[in-house]
Amino acid sequence: VSRKHAEIAKDSQGYAVTDLGSTNGTMLNGTPVRAGRLADGDELSFGTTTVRFIET
């Protein structure tokens, strides 16, 4: 995982993830993405670390 790997931000349409030019990339539900919309239950992978996005 890079020091500045990805950014998660909220906008008027919900949440989005943006890869910040990381070496190993960002995966959204197993698919490499530079940017993507997030939905409740999505899985994000940063290198070997995987987290689940839960919107509350």
UniProtKB/TrEMBL annotation:
<dbReference type="InterPro" id="IPR008984">
    <property type="entry name" value="SMAD_FHA_dom_sf"/>
</dbReference>
<dbReference type="InterPro" id="IPR050923">
    <property type="entry name" value="Cell_Proc_Reg/RNA_Proc"/>
</dbReference>
<dbReference type="Pfam" id="PF00498">
    <property type="entry name" value="FHA"/>
</dbReference>
<protein>
    <submittedName>
        <fullName>FHA domain containing protein</fullName>
    </submittedName>
</protein>
<dbReference type="InterPro" id="IPR000253">
    <property type="entry name" value="FHA_dom"/>
</dbReference>
<feature type="domain" description="FHA">
    <location>
        <begin position="1"/>
        <end position="33"/>
    </location>
</feature>
